[in-house]
Description:
This protein is α/β, with parallel strands linked by helices.
Amino acid sequence: MSRVQFDVTHPAHVHLFRHAIGELVADGNTVAVSSREKEITTDLLDAYGIEHTVLSEKGVRKAALLSEWVLRDVRTLRFAARFDPDVIVSRLSPTAVHAAAMVGAGSVAFHDHEGTNRLASLLAPFTDRLCTPSTFEADFGASHDRHDGVQELAYLHPDRFEPNRERLREFGVNPDEPYVVLRFVEMGAHHDVGLSGISAAAKRRLVDELSADAAVYVSSEGAVPTETDAEPVPVPPALMHDLLSEASLFVTDSNTMATEAGLLGTPTIRSGAYAETTEFSNFEVLAEAGLVESVPAEDRAVERAVTLFEDPNAERRWQRRRDDYVADKPDLTDYIVDTTLSVATDAPRETDVSARRHRGLEDEPARAVPRGEGDD
């Protein structure tokens, strides 16, 4: 049996790894999860019953990002030294890759955003597997491993996900009536510099145009459009995919959720600055499959959203396209588990406890770090 550490720093990482964590534990492996207090990351881990240790918290300003990651690097290293993993799995986390190298563990990193290819190139020599979709043109060397399909298939493959319509009803959502979901993000990540999402005016127009004939649920990292008929998303985060699956339309400036909605067979419009970049080759594939329409111009995106919502055949068309797309795509969780165990088996192990102590890595049990606690 193997000892596996997952480093989870973003809500999307919870979904990507949660089934793999469950399968590894069920098979008798020992798993530890190091987490980050960012948006709903820890809420999702708690909702899925995944025990985790919070190592850092996202600051409210971009200037705080560097200091947070320096602190996180130290804490991740100490956590790994105490847990003593065979392999550390992350979504292209520099702190996780560094910790793996320092404690003699294998490293598996997942990557699906060409906009961070420079970081991937820097980390590739220190990983045993750098896993990307097969659509990536970049070559990251000997550790680069390509997989078929998009990474969201780890949790939205038909073998993994089926919407729970009754749970939606419990939260006041009628899946038999048309409704629209809008998702707006803050462009606060390091790779978002110079980019913007959907403007406040376009958000307001979307709600005004669509709310006349349907409930409009809005999930937003910033302010929800005021003086409109928009309603906050009524379901807890763990039911967001159920809500997306039954929606008549989804409009967003979020890349991850655009992919998720398309894979669920929901008519999807993606707008904002990212919609005109080539940093996500996945969207070329999803566009070819007819699952996600990327419309950079806001006015055109609003018009297209209204047209799709009024099209009585749009939902059936998207469901058929989705079924065609996933028909030959693998369940990515199987790939995550197989890759993780392969690296865990092959990774060199440092069993000399005195060597770890010589580097200042105490051999103590890993423990949760309460919020606000520093390292003395």
